[in-house]
Design goal:
This protein is an all-alpha fold. Helices cover about 55% and strands about 0% of the residues.
Amino acid sequence: MNEVPAVTQDNLRVLLPAKVALTLEEIARARNTEPADEIAGFYSSDVYRNLENESTKYWWFSPAELCDLYLGRQGAQVD
């Protein structure tokens, strides 16, 4: 069986487009907007800065969890 490669800063870019798209859909659903309306705000957020930094492990969070962190929802925590 083939081993799954570890996520590194170099290959994280492969995961980001799908993760960001799904997160934007969650944010738009929560705000009753369109995902395109949320792009600029999300890309300039601390959540995105952490998501694109492998060492924070934000890539491990689901789109719903990233949405909660972005919107500052109660109960959304990072250890």
